[in-house]
Amino acid sequence: MKQLLLVFVGGGFGSVLRYVIGKYLNSTATGIPYGTFAANIIGSLLIGIVLGLAAKNDSLTQSQTLLLATGFCGGFTTFSTFAYENHVFLKSGDFTSFALYTIGSFVIGFLAVFLGMFLVK
């Protein structure tokens, strides 16, 4: 039960922060989802740091890892919104934004995880 509560609390904080970032950074004028992109990249960096610390000499407890990685980062990042925003790009025929957003999110997201893990070594 304690593990569920940790994931619940972390996920709640992550989701609220993602909402705030999206509210202020997603561009209604251009339709470019800067907030979602930022949340996903920052979340990728954070999960790399958290899981890197967890793997490094057990620097984090299992409870801390659940709260931060599974809970916070899971609530903060969002694949469903990313997928929907790509649907909107495709539906509107904006293939350039679709390609840049998709490729950029994957490449930079992976690099951010690796960077986070590298930083804690």
Automatic annotation (TrEMBL):
Positions that bind Na(+): G74, T77
PANTHER family in alphabetical order: FLUORIDE EXPORT PROTEIN 1-RELATED
Substrates-to-products reaction catalysed: fluoride(in) = fluoride(out)
Subcellular location(s) of the protein: Cell membrane
Keyword list, A-Z: Cell inner membrane, Cell membrane, Ion channel, Ion transport, Membrane, Metal-binding, Sodium, Transmembrane, Transmembrane helix, Transport
Main location (coarse class): membrane
Protein name: Fluoride-specific ion channel FluC
Physiological role: Fluoride-specific ion channel. Important for reducing fluoride concentration in the cell, thus reducing its toxicity.
Regulation: Na(+) is not transported, but it plays an essential structural role and its presence is essential for fluoride channel function.
Entry GO CC: plasma membrane
BP GO terms, sorted: cellular detoxification of fluoride
Family, similarity comment: Belongs to the fluoride channel Fluc/FEX (TC 1.A.43) family.
Source lineage: Bacteria, Pseudomonadati, Bacteroidota, Flavobacteriia, Flavobacteriales
Source species, domain of life: Bacteria
Membrane topology classification: Multi-pass membrane protein
InterPro entries (UniProt xref): FluC (IPR003691)
HAMAP family: FluC (MF_00454)
Gene name of the record: crcB
Leader sequence segment: none
TM segment ranges: 34-54, 66-84, 96-120
Species for this entry: Wocania arenilitoris
Keyword Membrane annotated: yes
Pfam families associated with the record: CRCB
GO molecular function: fluoride channel activity; metal ion binding
